[in-house]
């Protein structure tokens, strides 16, 4: 089976990571690569690590260019996917790495992103309860945000054991911000420095995490989420804590059991043996999520630490995983749990 | 006034930072510099940045070597300070950068550090309520831990406004771990990676933060504390959150007011104007703490973010500040709020 | 075809990288994994990124453990390979990532490494003139050093155009030093800092580069080589300069031509289009060498810049490439030219 | 003595470093701070580490604003200094951190920078032969480029011992490129990566190094210069090599002697004891240059390694040092040789 794909937004970090992964996928033929202001450039100028595509040029992002592919990946700023997807019609599977179709609530969308809601698509986190079945054979997929991926997977197995409020502080590499030319993203500013942003519940991934955990819990979960920028290109390490319900008091065994059951058969989520804690470089470039839990017995509080590569499983890897499900290919095809370390 | 000082543990990071700061202090004459396994070495071998001391050699850490100085700084592993301090008697002011005399509860000491409690000394965080007066003229000072410094200052002004449990996730540079030769502290492992440690309330700074906040609140405060190692040499960025009491509901004004009042006259704690958030490189090498607060109105939750240089205000800067208070010198002598950035 | 392999030294960086690459190789079954002081540990403790091998334990490095594999990779400190190889006899292909069998001159060996020369094996840099043919079907391979790999490939095409002395300054990540627990390799020391070492021709890779370039030139080439440690885990960027002979004066065209010809059919050496310069992150994790040349016309001096991942093409990737040649597999099997960036 | 100063270009890295140093200078009162597009902003927005100036606002860069100060520092893009300096007339000492007045040859200026040469000013590297005397009492100073500073100091003592061509490869942090919003300067691109630029003699600092070394030698010296960007904010480590003349053959003693003599009385240039090699973090934030030399005896080649902080002694520190000389203050006033490490 040869699947012909196109990538819209191939000059950015998510687009580059998609192509890196797809080049290793046995069933893929890489078709059109498009960009906006960089259209006409050699891809190599923007993705110097993709040598097998060194001769390719970026084309304009138009429906004409993108048509005629089996799968079209959209790695565009939010607000740009809906129209393109409609124009492409049902001829192609469309996998949107952007935010446009993640939120199910139109009110949430309008509050957090502004403008009209484009509707929601099957949500590309198959490891969440009852989610994989919606992705098999899907023609549209909304790839989750990077923080929601790691945060939701870190807490979903525990929702029955915890109270209704969770606190998440997630340390992230800078590639999550894309290639935006902002002073605070310059190497000189980033190296040797840590900084928080979107503090006080202001980050747009907050409603997405809330949506996922509330769905998993079957009741509203409140999410305190603070992202912290650290001096690394890739990787998110999320520290997630929540009060345990009285019934779980001091019951670290129950907690471990819940996580082991949840992820025993998941190919990409790895619940570590006791005594091992995740690090972001262990998942770098891979589709793996590494995770460990413990209970702070003085406080009867659950603490989960989880690591993910924001560009891989956090974005492009999830997109490929969902493509596999949509196409009926093996879910792990072209993907790996092996990180590039040290 | 010329004050003659000695540093025990001059080959390590805390010792080096003490010397860096003391070299800029107008009233200090640097006397004996001691070490353990490195005794006999040129200081330059261990502290290549201290050129004015390039000709100095490290001596053995003995009471004979340390006697005869006005102030003796101890930058030793925990458990080594009490005996030295006793031998030095009252002839010298002793400022202990280690943990031995920080905890007031002997039970806490035994639980967290093991062995017998050496007793507590005046606690060197003058910005905490009623603390400065205990340091003026003191002959013994226990310099706070780096995480407790930033965490306690971040939350102390709010203790009357919040519920009894706080969650702190603090991202730290690697110098906080000292020059320990452990594989996970190698540059190849650290760069490009974030990792949590001491998770689940297992870090020894937890009881110290608890002690400080409970004292400030006049009631027991429970502390969920998770430290995260990030790829930078220096700096801690602490994200501290707590549920606001009903009375403070949506009252961001009260919160800002509390912080402004608390630190209006503090020379080193800088509560930032609205819209500005702290970064660790802005305080690098300085004795400043930068801080910002907000209220997550969806959750009625306080979020404070604070930055400190773990080696400066987090250790050696605090030691110099306390020395100034002990000696009756201006508190800011030899210290600065100017960071080295970018 | 299934090839059963063993790795001696599987706890280190070179061993980990070998396993990372071999896990992606279609024809490989991973057998014994051995270590010295870490024998008995879970591999996961030392290689947390190798999840598919998470259940494996490290065994002792003995001939009994290593016997019975088709290929044995040795990733050991120098001086430990010869005896093991002899004991293994001809039953296994032995691929030595260490230095023991790289130098052809016994005098050079004794001067640079001390002790008796173990003899030389086919040298695993197939891109050098007349080298590939010696590797096809070989039973023993000496994998080149990382600096010699990039330096030799950078200058070999130009040996007929340049005078007899070359100057190489190579900036390297810290993983080249292995997991050695030395203070100067701690993250706190490495981050934010650059430093030279082995200055003045003192680095052991100097005679290896000299050997390669002299062989390519058919005359003695003198090599001034200075390695510089930079704050990154992986990657070498070599800046190589040499005086052009009079006949090549101002002849940038001839120079480009020589490089294009030399590497036109090489799958892993990529001579970049004009205007593009190599960066180490573009080759991270890949088996590619990226290269660009120019002529400083004011000085009639050739300047070549080349990038390689020291652990991949610089060590473990070359080992796999040579294994492929030794076994008669496609040379590129299990290897990629796609880097992990950003 | 109180000297009132102004800084034009106070929002950039050089401007920020000037202010950091001047805040520690005992004789300075900080007057107008100007910018271009950032005029009107709080300085804190651009220089969050300069807390004592947290209330200051940036003004427009006009002669009216800059007039009435004793010293005006210009930290502007090249081409902007000459006109401002002329308008300021002789009322102020003008210290230009830009390139406009560094080159003595109008031809060189036009070739490397384009446009008309603004003329040359006393060159602010007092450690070069016969240079200090031109700076004492000067009303105009051209602050050297960062690479020329470290390269010239590294080689000047040896000019009588070496042949006419030198090869310099200098590894630099990214702050040397300023706050330019270019994709290749983003943290995501810079971290974990090394890259060369201005290769083949194309960097504008080449003629400046050539000018300095030729002046020191009294004969033309040819300079092969390659700058390499490394993942750190600050610091330059220059590796400088040159063939020794026959007369100096194997004469490492003569070489050390030349360096010891040259810098014995220099307060900021530190020739290290044998066995010690410079690192950039040892000079971070300081006005020191650390240096070591050796002779590669196989090649009879001198190798010098020198470290400097590009923003401090490489730019702003040199500017303050020259201001001191110009005003007749002690040359070291407000400056330090103590780096911020680790």
TrEMBL record, chains A, B, C, D:
Its EC number is 1.2.1.38. Pathway: Amino-acid biosynthesis; L-arginine biosynthesis; N(2)-acetyl-L-ornithine from L-glutamate: step 3/4. It comes from Lentzea aerocolonigenes (Lechevalieria aerocolonigenes). The lineage of its organism: Bacteria, Bacillati, Actinomycetota, Actinomycetes, Pseudonocardiales. It catalyses: N-acetyl-L-glutamate 5-semialdehyde + phosphate + NADP(+) = N-acetyl-L-glutamyl 5-phosphate + NADPH + H(+). GO terms for molecular function: N-acetyl-gamma-glutamyl-phosphate reductase activity; NAD binding; NADP+ binding. Gene3D superfamilies: Dihydrodipicolinate Reductase, domain 2 (3.30.360.10), NAD(P)-binding Rossmann-like Domain (3.40.50.720). It is an enzyme of class 1 (oxidoreductase). HAMAP family: ArgC_type1. GO terms for biological process: L-arginine biosynthetic process. It is found in: Cytoplasm. This is N-acetyl-gamma-glutamyl-phosphate reductase. Residues 4-136 form the Semialdehyde dehydrogenase NAD-binding domain. Keywords: Amino-acid biosynthesis, Arginine biosynthesis, Cytoplasm, NADP, Oxidoreductase. It comes from the Bacteria. One of its GO terms (cellular component) is cytoplasm. The active site is at 146. Belongs to the NAGSA dehydrogenase family. Type 1 subfamily. InterPro entries: AGPR (IPR050085), AGPR_AS (IPR023013), AGPR_dimerisation_dom (IPR058924), AGPR_type-1 (IPR000706), NAD(P)-bd_dom_sf (IPR036291), Semialdehyde_DH_NAD-bd (IPR000534). Catalyzes the NADPH-dependent reduction of N-acetyl-5-glutamyl phosphate to yield N-acetyl-L-glutamate 5-semialdehyde. The gene is argC.
